[in-house]
Amino acid sequence: MGMLEQFIDRTDQLDYSDTVEIEDAEEEAPNCLQLLYPSPLQFGSQTLTHALQRHPLCSPISVLELQPGEENDMDIQGLAVWDDHVVQIIGVNNSIPPDQVAFTLEVAHCNQEDKHAIRHHQSHVLLVYAGRCDILLFQYYTLTIVAGVLADTNASVVLNLPACACIPATLVSPTMNPELHTTEDDLLLVLLYTGYVKYFKEGLPGCWVRTMTGTILGVPDFATFLPEITDAEDYMFIIGDIFSYLINSQALCDEGHTLSINGEIFVLRRPNAIEYFLERDGPLFVLQQH
């Protein structure tokens, strides 16, 4: 049972024996997602409200209202509202400027079909959290619910640009992914909320993988070097397990601490001088197999 289910007042059953600690999250953080479309935007309030009310992770009294945009750079504007949550919806019948997606295209851990959809999209929707919940992870859950409803309006990709993250829109759709309400959300933690990117360094076989925005969720980022690129999927789930534990336990972690994941022992260390390319704002630990 995942944290998305905890979000809707179900009990989480994570059981970890490791003891590590994390620092408090920063107060300011990005809280938006983008959906990309291969054609002009075409959807209406009534249909989307019904879809939102039927979403397995949403309230049956939720409302989604849209109207023509009042600004020159906005074709559709609206709100999705339930409980303490408000999501601002901004639709634009134009593509995101190429320079804003260039780095994501370069490093994101996604397939070529998704990258093609990013390069050739014709319109996009920006979702911005504007509600009263101050838990950043729950803000992302809320954005993901609305993204899932809009995914059924011919969206191709969901982006989180600060995290250099992109996933197929079908992954968050409750109709195209009927197991959404029971799916472990470790996958969304890494693939969408914190990002999971690949760095290839000239002269080195394999690649580095790392997360990008873990600190906004109150966890450090993690990186590791993979001699074989085929191991990238396994480490994505390992990091997802670590994130789930840290978020649920509110523990702290530091250099030299060890983690036991699926029977394997990992030691945390800081990047060294020749790993300068891993440096970003906020703490990052390199996962090294013991």
Can you give a write-up of this model?
The structure is a single chain. With 290 residues, the chain is α+β, with helices and mostly antiparallel strands. It folds into two domains: 29-183, no CATH class; 193-289, no CATH class. It has seven helices and 13 strands. A seven-stranded antiparallel beta sheet has the order 2-3-4-5-1-6-7, sandwiched between helices. Strands 8-9-10-13-12-11 form a six-stranded mixed beta sheet, with helices on one face. Strand 2 (63-68) and strand 3 form a beta hairpin. Helix 6 (186-194) crosses helix 7. The longest helix is centred in the last third of the chain and has 18 residues, at 232-249. The protein is globular, with a radius of gyration of 19 Å. The two termini are 29 Å apart.
Summed up:
The chain has 290 residues and is α+β, with helices and mostly antiparallel strands.
| Helicity range | 25-40%
Number of helices: 7
Low-confidence stretches: 1-27
Rg over alpha carbons: 19 Å
Order of helices and strands: HEHEEEHHEHEEHEEEHEEE
Q: What average pLDDT do the residues reach? A: 84
The major sheet is characterized as: 7 strands, antiparallel
* General form: globular
> How far apart lie the N and C ends?
29 Å
Number of beta-strand segments: 13
Identify the strand order in the major beta sheet: 2-3-4-5-1-6-7
User: Which structural class should the secondary elements be placed in?
Assistant: alpha+beta
Q: Please indicate the percent range of residues in DSSP E strands (runs of 2 or more).
A: 15-25%
- What is the number of independent domains? 2
Multimeric status of the protein = single chain
